[in-house]
Amino acid sequence: MERTLSIIKPDGVKRNILGDIIGRFEKHGLRVAAIKKIWMSKEEAKGFYIVHKDRPFYDSLTDFMSEGPIVVMVLEGDNAIAKNREIMGATNPANAAEGTIRKDFAENVERNIVHGSDATETAAFEIGYFFSSLEIL
Ligand code: ADP
Ligand code: MG
């Protein structure tokens, strides 16, 4: 059993497709162990994406992630980190496989609907960024 952090980004929330996205996770055997809707400040978005601080897209990405509400979730299941990323599809929707969330909904490489942790250590940091242990059930 593994846990990963999933975010439905501001573009996904605006398009009113939370149910579709969460349904895909559930259909693939992942379980929602924690969930809430929040609106990050620019500073909070910068803290979340601190690993990307030297990337050219850091400023634009953190503007995007703080432009409106997001839904943050802890997903739980066998191989949850890799499975979530498979369901999401490649970062750039142009390269995403058929049937993935990003292929079906993402506008471009930045506005790509969902986030998912990429490794055990990043999942632990990202889950702890939004949730206390008492909120994960
Ligand atoms: P992923 O979300 O697939 O793990 P990364 O960790 O590489 O991708 O990047 C984090 C986020 O930054 C992406 O989901 C996307 O929103 C944005 N991003 C990544 N690459 C670019 C890029 N070349 N131009 C603009 N935004 C980008
Ligand atoms: Mg990443």
Describe this structure in words.
This protein is α+β, with helices and mostly antiparallel strands and 137 residues long. The chain is built from seven helices and four strands. It has helices spanning 10-14, 18-27, 42-48, 58-65, 80-88, 101-105, 120-130; strands at 2-8, 31-38, 70-77, 114-116. The protein has a four-stranded antiparallel beta sheet with strand order 2-3-1-4. The structure holds adenosine-5'-diphosphate (ADP) and magnesium ion (MG). The site of adenosine-5'-diphosphate has 9 residues, from loops.
Q: Fraction of residues in helices?
A: 40-55%
Could you tell me how far the N terminus lies from the C terminus, measured between alpha carbons in angstroms? 13 Å
Q: So what's the overall shape?
A: globular
SS content category = alpha+beta
Report strand %.
Answer: 15-25%
Strands, helices and their partners?
Layout: E1 2-8, H1 10-14, H2 18-27, E2 31-38, H3 42-48, H4 58-65, E3 70-77, H5 80-88, H6 101-105, E4 114-116, H7 120-130
Antiparallel strand pairs: 1-3, 1-4, 2-3
Helix pairs in contact: 3-4
Summarize the structure.
By secondary structure, the chain is of the alpha+beta class. 40% of the residues lie in helices and 19% in strands.
